[in-house]
Design a protein that fits this description.
With 86 residues, this protein is an alpha+beta fold. It is built from two helices and six strands, in the order αβαβββββ. It starts with a helix and ends with a strand.
Length: 86
């Protein structure tokens, strides 16, 4: 499981950079928010608190990177996480 998470995190890092550079509109992964948060902090993002919508456990976490607004969102019920420019 560790190896799979590490591989997915490396792919996520590449995807985030592609979104930031405007090469792709969004990047989706099966990583959990907890796996992503440390990386997002390491690249110097500013963030507010994560917001959820209750029983479905959909969530959103806004980030500011170099003055640009981005959003990391996902669903605990359905799974999946998506990073995209606002």
């Amino acid at each position: 499981m560790k190896e799979l998470k590490a591989k997915l995190l490396e792919e996520f890092k590449i995807g985030v950079q592609q979104v930031i550079n405007g090469k792709i509109p969004e990047y989706s992964t099966l990583l959990a928010m907890g796996d992503i948060e440390e990386y997002m902090k390491s690249i110097g993002t500013e963030t507010d608190e994560m917001t959820t919508n209750g029983w479905e456990w959909d969530w959103w976490n806004p980030y500011t990177i170099d003055g640009q607004e981005y959003n990391l969102s996902g669903s605990g019920y359905y799974g999946g996480t998506t990073f995209q420019k606002e």
